[in-house]
Amino acid sequence: MWSQRKDFKSQYQRLLKLLPVAVFGGIVGGLLLLNTSESSFRSIIPYLILVATLLLAAQVKIKNWVVARIGHAHSEHRNPMLMLSLVLLAAVYGGYFGAGLGVILMAVLGYVTDDSMTRLNFLKQALAFAINLAAAIYFAFSGKVDWLIAFVMIFGSLSGGLIGGKLAGKIKPELLRWIVVSAGLIASVIFFLKK
Fold first, then answer.
1. Of 26, 49, 129, 172, which cross-links 100 as Cys (Cβ 3.0–4.6 Å)?
2. Membrane-spanning residues where (predicted)?
3. 15 Cβ partners below 8 Å, 6+ apart?
4. Which residues contact 145 (CB under 8 A, 6 or more apart)?
5. Where along the chain do its domains lie?
6. 93/32 Cα distance (integer angstroms)
7. Rounded CA gap, 112 and 54, in Å?
């Protein structure tokens, strides 16, 4: 996120609108996770990642359909509730599971805004951070956190965000999308094989 701070100004208004929804959704997702059995959770992991990946792969076609249906290229201005609702669903997912959250957020933001993947990457990272932080704070007070694993995940998330943010500005948006789609498909296959 820090490496893309130049994009902050262009996404500031969107971030202000979406941040409360993201935080609320992260907490709701955390609540749902703590009330789901481990076997149920393990059985839905591959499907959650696969759906997120397919959404991103079909982003351009779905966005074109949404724009044609709404009749305006900047659909977020015509239907702000669509954007808020989709971000809320993504946030609940993120608080519940988290893997593939970036893919889902990128797909959602791509559907409801008329902006490039590169510029939306900052917004995606900021929202993912808020969702994960809200869920983490909820989990911290639940008494059910393995703190060693939590710190490893925090380090990985921060490192990946910093490196990913730097790379995102140097890669063509279409290539970036297909790299993320490929990673999502690989993750889906791995989780299906573990099932």
1. 49
2. 15-34, 40-60, 81-110, 122-141, 148-169, 175-193
3. 8, 123, 126, 127
4. 139
5. 25-194
6. 9
7. 17
Contact 157, 101 (CB under 8 A): no
Structure tokens at 119: 């510029």
Q: Is 7 within 8 Å of 119 (Cβ atoms)? A: yes
Compute CA distances 147 → 141, 144, 150, 153, 156, whole Å: 12, 9, 5, 10, 14
What values do phi and psi take at 74, rounded to 5? -100, 70
Rounded distance between C-alpha atoms, residue 168 and residue 39, angstroms: 36
Amino acid at 144: K
pTM of the model: 0.69
Question: Do the beta carbons of residue 26 and residue 133 sit within 8 Å?
Answer: yes
Q: Which two tokens stand for residue 104?
A: 């889902």
Number of neighbouring beta carbons within 10 Å of residue 71? 8
- CA gyration radius, the chain: 16
> How many C-beta atoms lie closer than 10 Å to residue 19's C-beta?
16
Q: What does the pLDDT look like over 85-103, one tens digit per residue?
A: 999 999 999 999 887 788 7
Q: Got the DSSP string for 140-153? A: HTTT---HHHHHHH
Query: Which amino acid, one-letter code, is at 69?
Result: R
Each residue's pLDDT tens digit, 126-183: 999 999 999 989 988 998 888 888 789 888 888 887 887 777 778 888 888 888 899 9
For residue 23, give the amino acid letter.
V
Burial bucket for residue 193 (CB in 10 Å: 0-12, 13-18, 19+): exposed
